[in-house]
Design a protein that fits this description.
Length: 218
């Protein structure tokens, strides 16, 4: 008798080479897309962080120099001892200091600002050292990664035709303006160009400008 029973043994099955290639291609495309998105987000985060750091450093620098200039002191009626060029600045200022016996009191100090090797140097001497020309000024770098530093000085304009209230000078006192030797400028314009990173090219520098008005200026 012939047995016609049906076999229940499942047949063998698998992926073809074409299916494997398609799956591998899809996996690679997804992996590349994920990596590109991650890399783009990381680069954006780095740019934002660098930009925030630049603005933070600029804010600290301007707050410091503004507080000192707002308390600028005129040494005498003949000599203000305010000397400025386009890249250096020296002046006297009454800055509050803390004394353990008398508490907070104003102290006369001399401040010097200059640019050297990509950093702004701030010099200060106080007390009797202000009156001693030979007394050295202690300098420290207060901000680095600087592309350029520029100062300008404002005085009342003598040009009545242009109707300009103030005139800007690259030097103070200007050699052609003898009255500036004993006086203070009406305002000081500070322009600072900061690099986001130490190795950033000069064209990537961010420019910050602040005009600081002086109440005792001429």
């Amino acid at each position: 008798m012939i047995n016609l029973r049906r076999s229940n043994k499942p047949g063998k099955s698998g992926f073809t080479l074409l299916e494997l290639l398609i799956a591998a291609t899809i996996f690679v495309l997804v992996a590349v897309a994920i990596y590109s998105a991650f890399r783009s987000g990381y680069n954006t985060y780095q740019r934002i962080e660098a930009s925030f750091s630049v603005y933070q450093r600029a804010r600290v620098f301007f707050n410091r120099i503004e507080s000192e200039l707002l308390n600028v002191y005129r040494y005498s009626e003949q000599d203000s001892r305010f000397l400025g060029t386009s890249q250096t600045l020296s002046f006297l200022s009454l800055i509050p200091e803390y004394d353990k016996d008398t508490g907070q009191r104003p102290a006369l100090s001399q401040f010097d600002y200059s640019l050297q090797d990509g950093a702004v140097l701030r010099g200060q001497k106080s007390g009797l050292g202000v009156f001693l020309a030979d007394d050295p000024v202690k300098k420290e770098a207060i901000i680095s990664q600087i592309s350029s530093l520029k100062f300008e000085y404002a005085a009342e304009s003598e040009d009545k035709v242009s109707n300009m209230a103030y005139q800007w000078f690259a030097l103070w006192p200007d050699e052609k303006k003898s009255e500036q030797l004993a006086g203070l400028p009406r305002a000081v314009k500070v322009e600072l160009r900061l690099l986001p990173k130490k190795d950033s090219p000069a064209q990537d520098a961010i420019t910050f400008t602040k005009v600081i008005a002086l109440e005792l200026g001429i």
